[in-house]
């Protein structure tokens, strides 16, 4: 195989081949190649310099697809985002071998017996209803295609406004934290602006600030009367409209307050984003839907904000971050999804595929792939009879707890001690202490109760 890498389950050294042992298999490279191919590779290396770094031709190809399809999206990619690509090699060869290697498949990358993954019976006895391949095999870097399609159906069913909108096939991630990390790598360079509310999940600072050097700015989430401060969000956003790129992170139900907007508040957020886009800012709006679906009041907007901002403006890239962690009560599965929505291009599907390859390359270069066992179990659960009824029972239980907490915390006897922040959804509620230091109270409660 001149000029190419080939992977074999076993290999033997020959005079014209260099052999490298990699884990359980042997990688063989044939150095024989034509002078023309060698020269063209050298020329490619010379021409693929960007910012002093050599950019892989596959990354350049993806960049051109994005630049031609949605130039506003290309402008928001980080330096790392522009370098990302999905490698052609063992993963591509393995996928082809699964389809075409009928006699022997020696590019599979795992140990097999009788056509199935080799496994320990002591583990398999706990997975009696599963095929070994569903539990022990590698998953594709971007996730099982059947699960991705089914999750897309779930997104559309739970968010009817998405019907007819343009959005990508969800990509499987190892939890929503991983999905957020992917976004930070894909879009955030040091010094890029990230707009967050003053009530937020602290890990955002680690993911975007510590890891990627984002310039984090905040706005008040609530007015004094307890309503969502959409005007403060608008003013903060427009004050930075002269920036070439603005990253925005929206999280409802909000962690830690447990608040979700009413329809009018959600529409005000959308309108502010559109106003900033019209003013010339390129926006990447990440919607953290970790607690999606846990809405306990009728007046709450019960769709993701992703539904309101999908495909609304070429300068607005919407990213939905959701997953089974809370929606399906499987915290330890570490299964999330990342979904993109764009506007303005003539061939958005081609741009979505380019984004998928960049994300797939990032996953390949960090964790390789996400758990096949967790994906298989979720897929089976979503297809099983009674799945929706089981989720509804858990939802009702949490809703009952919400109502009981709400009744207690608003009692007059506690008015001098604390004031609850508005809450109507999710897992949490949050109070503002009137006189006592929060950590002092925490220690007191631990010691006494």
Which strands sit side by side, in order, in the main sheet? 8-14-13-12-11-9-10
CATH class of one domain: Alpha Beta
Mean pLDDT: 87
Assembly state of the chains shown: single chain
Global structural class? alpha/beta
Q: Report the count of strand segments.
A: 16
Largest sheet: 7 strands, mixed
Can you tell me the CATH architecture of one domain?
3-Layer(aba) Sandwich
Amino- and carboxy-terminal Cα gap: 71 Å
Name the overall outline: globular
CATH topology heading of one domain: Aspartate Aminotransferase, domain 2
Number of H/I helices: 18
Rounded radius of gyration (Å): 25 Å
> CATH homologous superfamily name of one domain?
Type I PLP-dependent aspartate aminotransferase-like (Major domain)
- Unreliable residue stretches: 1-47
Question: How much helix is in the residues?
Answer: 40-55%
**Strand residues, percent:** 15-25%
What does this structure look like?
The N terminus is likely disordered. It is built from 18 helices and 16 strands. The longest helix has 23 residues. The protein is an alpha/beta fold. The N and C termini lie far apart (71 Å). 42% of the residues lie in helices and 15% in strands. The protein has a domain of 243 residues: 3-Layer(aba) Sandwich (Aspartate Aminotransferase, domain 2), CATH 3.40.640.10. The radius of gyration is 25 Å and the shape is globular. The strands form 5 sheets. A 7-stranded mixed sheet has the order 8-14-13-12-11-9-10, with helices on both faces. Strands 1-3-2 form a 3-stranded antiparallel sheet, with no helix packed on it. Helix 2 runs antiparallel to helix 15, helix 9 packs parallel to helix 10 and helix 11 runs parallel beside helix 12.
